[in-house]
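Researcher: Let's do a round of design. I'm pasting the structure tokens now; please hold your answer until I've finished.
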């Protein structure tokens, strides 16, 4: 998510509308969607065309599909009927009963109670709210009426099941959260008839206010038995309302922490596997969280912070402050979070009197080392990485790298080049774990570290990839020769003389000869210009070639990279295209179109980057006289390749016949055969 690379995309036809959220079937690893209310679609990840996916037209309109890890998908219809997906697929046109009359479904949720799936949904009719609890496999249905609240109505719902009891949480318009307990039970038909008139009483769980500021909530989710998260607008007296994501301790009625969202949200909040998902501005933001055992000491500490009149004193999860440096992995009274792709998990420094020095958290240890000498800092950090427990190893290393880059920013003279290279080479890191590392390396012009990061990090943003490419192309060959970079990807196919200049070799590219083709091309190119453009000699030195190969290896999404490549200076673009053309020619020399060496670029990578660069810079290339020879040579070479492979296709049948005859021939018999290829 940090680099916004779509892994799959499917769309319905023009005029069709997806009418409920798409879900994943955990058992079959298939996607399930409904468009135009009644048309069911099921497809797998490898399917490309949604129009060719499985299709079933149902007899009633679908409200939601709920997918449970061990219970299979459940389909809830607008009339209140529920079917398992398997039962529905057996007879898609089966009649679906209407359970609700004149009511509109406002919310639904599905849960597992033991081995049985339970589906809960709420409805509204004439400002009255009702709750339905269904067990589809047992054909059990219970209907309740929600107790009315004077001058307030429910805005949203969430629920969870504990000890055969449904705990329904309701966020009301009076800025309060109420709790409703609904026992899951087996009743006779008479009791079920009586339950239709039963009114559910509710109890006040939480007031969403602190120090005169009131949270106008729009969405809430349950984190655990003691914590809930509420998304909404925080309104303080004489201050502009600010949208915030807040976490509350329901056990002690306190605000645990808050994150301001200045770009605005859609009002929706999702929670899955200890991650928040929300729309912030125009992007999807993912925030990791971890709820630990609630204690009075932690709650009082938070309450003390939250009672200060200045609401802006809430934690800012995007920065590394002295008092919240990184996550306290062993803290027993914190809610640790990771915001917007940063592994800056942190917690307040709530210390316990009995805490021993040997149980210091990562955050506390790094704080203690903040002003330590370079030797002490690096020694302690190496010990920390060596003894970090496996589940927390990646987060610990991310914190260590963040601490090192932080010191580099504070002290321009400090830069532990070897230590950072060692960490990146030996640890399974990613860009999102240490987002400032490559920025610091660019500032320090550490080309070797950038090369390693580009080859190893799977999630580098396109803007950073472009910045590295521009830096590599702009650096002089003389300066690069004094820099230590890994040459394994180029040393096997770039021939170098003693004066470090490549000598030109005679090349015949899969049946293509440049001199023969020259006569067939309308454009006459001077020999001197042709020698620079025909792909025979490498236009860059070994070091620059190795760095450019690292860029070719980095993952990217064309949509996000293309706007940046359009800003590449013309001379750098031409130089990069010359190098890509050189690699293309080198690959074409080999029967298997594979370059020798370790981490050498593949033919697909070369072609993709060449097409991408031409798309981004085509107008510039056409207008510049310097690019004319290069484009002409590239055009000739591609045309010759197309002609050569076209000729191969013509004799494909004959070659297959030769192969068949070789299998039939006796190995010990000598013979001379003449085959006429027509």
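Researcher: That's everything. Go ahead.
Model: Designed sequence:
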């Amino acid at each position: 998510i940090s680099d916004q690379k779509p892994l799959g995309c499917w769309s319905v036809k023009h005029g069709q509308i997806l009418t409920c959220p798409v879900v994943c079937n955990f058992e079959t690893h298939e996607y399930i969607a409904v468009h135009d209310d009644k048309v069911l679609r099921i497809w797998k990840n490898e399917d490309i065309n949604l129009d060719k996916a499985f299709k079933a037209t149902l007899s009633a309109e679908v409200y939601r599909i709920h997918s449970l890890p061990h219970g299979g998908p459940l389909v809830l219809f607008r009339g209140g009927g529920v079917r398992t997906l398997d039962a529905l697929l057996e007879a898609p046109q089966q009649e679906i009963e209407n359970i609700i009359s004149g009511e509109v479904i406002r919310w639904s949720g599905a849960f597992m109670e033991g081995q049985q799936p339970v589906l809960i949904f709420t409805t509204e009719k004439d400002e009255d709210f009702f709750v339905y609890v269904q067990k589809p496999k047992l054909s059990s249905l219970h209907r309740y009426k929600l107790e009315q609240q004077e001058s307030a109505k429910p805005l949203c719902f969430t629920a969870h099941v504990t000890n055969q009891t449904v705990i329904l949480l309701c966020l009301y318009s009076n800025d309060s959260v109420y709790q409703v307990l609904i026992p899951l039970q087996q009743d006779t038909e008479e009791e079920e008839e009586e339950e239709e008139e039963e009114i559910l009483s509710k109890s006040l769980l939480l007031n969403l206010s602190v120090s005169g500021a009131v949270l106008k909530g729009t969405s809430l989710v349950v984190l655990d038995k003691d914590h809930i998260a509420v998304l909404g607008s925080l309104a303080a007296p004489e201050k502009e309302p600010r949208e915030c994501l807040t976490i509350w301790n329901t056990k002690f009625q306190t605000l645990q922490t808050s994150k301001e969202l200045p770009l605005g949200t859609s009002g929706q909040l999702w929670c899955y596997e200890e991650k928040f998902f929300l729309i912030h501005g125009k992007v999807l933001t993912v925030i990791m969280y971890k709820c630990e055992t609630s204690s009075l000491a932690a709650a009082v500490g938070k309450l003390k912070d939250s009672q200060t009149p200045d609401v802006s004193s809430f934690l800012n999860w995007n920065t590394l402050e002295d008092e919240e440096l990184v996550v306290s992995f062993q803290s027993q009274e914190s809610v640790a979070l990771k915001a917007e792709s940063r592994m800056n998990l942190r917690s307040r420094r709530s210390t316990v009197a009995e805490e021993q020095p040997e149980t210091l958290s990562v955050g506390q240890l790094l704080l203690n080392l903040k002003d330590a000498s370079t030797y002490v800092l690096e020694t302690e950090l190496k010990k920390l990485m060596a003894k970090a427990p496996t589940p927390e190893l990646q987060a610990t290393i991310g914190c260590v790298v963040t601490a090192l880059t932080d010191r580099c920013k504070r002290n321009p003279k400090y830069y532990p080049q070897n230590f950072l290279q060692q960490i990146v080479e030996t640890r399974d890191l990613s860009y999102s774990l240490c987002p400032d590392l490559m920025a610091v390396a660019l500032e320090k012009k550490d080309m070797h570290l950038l090369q390693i990061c580009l080859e190893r990090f799977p999630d580098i943003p396109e803007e950073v990839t472009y910045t590295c490419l521009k830096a590599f192309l702009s650096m002089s060959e003389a300066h690069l020769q004094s820099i230590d970079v890994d040459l394994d990807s180029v040393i096997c196919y770039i021939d170098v003389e003693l004066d470090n200049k490549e000598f030109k070799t005679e090349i015949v590219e899969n049946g293509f000869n440049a001199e023969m083709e020259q006569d067939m091309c309308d454009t006459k190119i001077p020999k001197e210009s042709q020698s620079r453009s025909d792909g025979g000699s490498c236009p860059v030195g070994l070091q620059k070639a190795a760095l450019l190969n690292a860029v070719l290896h980095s993952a990217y999404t064309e949509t996000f990279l293309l706007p940046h490549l359009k800003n590449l200076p013309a001379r750098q673009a031409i130089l990069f295209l010359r190098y890509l053309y050189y690699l293309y020619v080198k690959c074409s020399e080999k029967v298997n179109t594979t370059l020798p060496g370790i981490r050498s670029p593949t033919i697909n990578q070369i072609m993709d980057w060449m097409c991408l660069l031409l798309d981004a810079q085509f107008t510039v290339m056409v207008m510049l006289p310097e690019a004319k020879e290069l484009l002409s040579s590239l055009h000739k070479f591609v045309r010759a390749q197309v002609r050569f492979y076209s000729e191969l296709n013509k004799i494909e049948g004959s070659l297959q016949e030769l192969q068949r005859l070789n299998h039939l021939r006796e190995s010990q018999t000598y013979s001379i055969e003449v085959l006429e290829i027509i």
